Amino acid sequence: MDELTLRRAQKGDHAAFGQLVTPHEAMVWRVCWRYMQNREDASDCAQEAMLKAWRSLPGYRQDCSLETWLYRICVSCCVDALRRRTQPALSLNDLSEAGFDPPAAAPTPEESALRTEDSSELQQAIALLPEDMRTVLILSALEDRTYEDIASITGVAVGTVKSRLNRARIKLSQILSQLREPSAKNCVQQSERRAR
Amino acid sequence: MNCTEYTVLLEKYLDGSLTPAEDRQLRQHEESCAACAAQRLALDGLQDHLASLKDNVPDIPEDFHQRWTTLVEEDAMENREKKTASRRQWTRILSTAAALVFVLGGTLLTRDSLAPRHEQATQTSYDYASEESYDTAAANGVMMLSSAPDAGSGVVYSRRAKAAGDSVPMQQEKKIIRTVTLTMGTHTFDESLSALRALCEEKGGWVSYSSENTASGGKRVAYLTLRIPSDQLDTWLDGSGSLGRMISREESAADVSDSYYDTQSRLATQQALMARLQALMTDAASLSDLLALESQIADTQYTIDSLQASLNSTDQQVNYATVSVTLREETSASDITDSEKTLWQRILSALETGVTAFADFAADVLVFLTAALPFILTLGAVWLIIRLVRRRRKK
To answer: Which run of H or of E encompasses B206?
Structure first.
């Protein structure tokens, strides 16, 4: 990263900001897509993340790489956007009561083509994970970030990241099992209740 | 082992930190719980399953780059406008503050020098002695005497240069020019003024200068220059003290004895010379001698006249002291002490003082601004030129 470009961008030069951030725009889009699972929402969220990065850049102290810093901003924007969604997040119980009716927005033809049956199921299962678990799972399993990076992005200890990731995997497998075999649902529900 | 305990072991399994005993417990539970067994199987294949999602991302929208750069650009512009507006606001605030400091500071600093001349005159001790008298006074030493209006015992004498009397023969009378400056306040202005004049004439003196004008607030002020016989000065001062409130009093006494007696001896010499020249005139044999003697006599007579005039002038100043009086009209409320005033009187008095002070200050501001007008106009012109040049450069 060019120090001079960074300094210029921090002082309000939007062209310098473009030079810094454009190489990471694919990452920004990808993360937002993974969270939002909807082209329009992902696009809005990614733009919001870019704007937030521009506004927050004067406060960037280079205590982590620019990419990690951008990850942090993207995650924060996505989490906020999901919280803002008018539809309340569905729990596993809601899902079972409704007879599994996924709340995903209508996919575009491109999205439909991309979604194989399996991947669609997996994406829906990820969407049902609690927020903290979803974040570590996306960053680790889908974005290949190191534990240290994830700790820096989420602001928790590396040990917490590891345990949270393991729990996310187990939870995900439980959700998937339930989705595939309704008979296994009881076991999952039982474990959920105990966990509460 | 129940399903919850199994989940704890499952986390360890994923971490790779399972002991052989825990591994056995895990598998035992799986034998009895098909769901947990299926879960572990699913978990083993989950990583591969997740990997398949990595590339399952649609392409970036074509207009994404354009849209976020436009957003950032607009935000940058908005920020710049905000900064400019903020800078302008600060410039306005600072300019106003600077103008206030300029006007108030300038007024306070220059109000004395731009005040009416008669105000200064009241603080200046002056006498009507000739220039020579001033010089001789300076040469012989000046004795200053000043006293506070109500501190008669606190008289301070100061002597500059060497004592004039030391070089004067003891049998000769000292020649001292006395000058007094008084500032008085009165609420019976006309009566006090008449009484001052009358007292002066009663002591054998006269008024050499008199003026009267109305100051701000409608109060009258009179300026008098009185000539009073020196031997009557002290009794006149005692008498005038009861004619009004003494605000300030300043006395000076200039010893001109050295200069006076020197002039006197020069006069005697010239007179002796004149007598000799006149005696020679009677014995003159030729016309040329006669003409030369007449010319010499004329010069000597001129010198005698000027020396005599100088002595006369000094005598006049020595015999008649110069008293400068400033008499200010005051309201009767000013004479009452604060403890005697009612609350209403105090409020009125404070209001009057405030209004007078404000009016005086406003007048001072106006005078200062008028005096500073050339500077303000010059600076304004320079500023306009700089602004025009900058605008042209920007274009």
So the answer is: strand B206-214
